[in-house]
Design brief:
It is built from 7 helices and 8 strands; from the N terminus they run ββαβαβαβααβαβαβ. With 245 residues, it is of the alpha/beta class. α3 packs parallel to α5. Its cofactor is [4Fe-4S] cluster.
Length: 245
């Protein structure tokens, strides 16, 4: 798939067995706040973000190293009562119409459902809301600046529409921003104030790691620049977390 090409998938719902899984973490304490979780990494993403660390998950047509949903189902059945939640991550999970079926099966086992998403498909996200307990949403930039990062012109509109949808629905939500090299304090101040004004209450700043970045020429930070951290007023949010100091 060429860089920046969208993932083309059917909008018809599919069975959980059709979920294309490119990776699986059996236990984590950091992917769903406060819960012991497993993470299902879904294959495929329509965007080509310059700092993406999961390049092996971008191609929706990849067949190597896919994990059968039946194997994940068997694992989860054996961990009932030991794990609290299952997080669907990626790639971009909502690119796959089998996601809803997989979430329903997982929820029926008694697990909480978490979702990591870029917000690329707001209408698909809307249909999944009854199945989701917590969302980690990446808001990458101000809407008008998305294309330079993702490679697609309407990506900003989609991401911010997903944010509005999640806020309106009252879903337990964490918004995360990865700090791009070259950002100024003024830019981050405007972005964070805009997010707070929309109703975001839990906000996370993440360092831009470039060791495995999709763009090999992207400069990175060895530590989070303090001037950027200080550009975000912690009083704007109920919870502000800095990852990478």
């Amino acid at each position: 798939m060429p860089d920046g090409a969208p993932c083309v998938t059917s909008d018809q719902p599919q069975t959980a067995e059709r979920l294309r899984v490119g990776g699986f973490t059996r236990l984590t304490t950091i992917d769903y706040p406060g819960e012991l979780s497993a993470v299902v990494f879904c294959q495929g993403c329509p965007w080509r973000c310059r700092y993406c660390q999961n390049g092996d998950l971008l191609d929706s047509t990849a067949v190597e190293s896919l994990i059968d949903w039946a194997d994940i189902r068997a694992f989860l059945r054996g961990r009932v009562g030991l794990l609290d939640a299952v997080v669907f991550s990626g790639g971009e999970p909502t690119v796959q119409t089998a996601l809803g079926a997989a979430m329903r099966e997982t929820r029926a086992l008694g697990y909480k459902i978490g979702l990591h998403t870029s917000g690329a498909y707001p209408e698909r996200l809307r249909t999944l809301l009854p199945l989701i307990d917590w969302v980690g949403l990446d808001i990458k930039t101000l809407p008008e600046d998305y294309a330079a990062l993702t490679g697609l012109p309407d990506s900003g509109e989609r991401a911010w529409a997903s944010l509005a949808l999640l806020l309106e629905a009252g879903v337990n939500l964490e918004v995360r921003t990865t700090l791009m090299p070259g950002w100024t304090s003024d830019y981050l101040h405007v972005l964070s104030c805009t997010l707070a004004a929309t109703g975001v209450r839990r906000y996370v700043l993440q360092i831009c790691a470039t060791q495995r970045a999709l763009d090999p020429n992207l400069p990175g930070y060895s530590i989070m620049p303090r001037e950027l951290v200080e550009a975000v007023d912690p009083l704007l949010f109920e919870h502000l977390d800095i990852r990478g100091m």
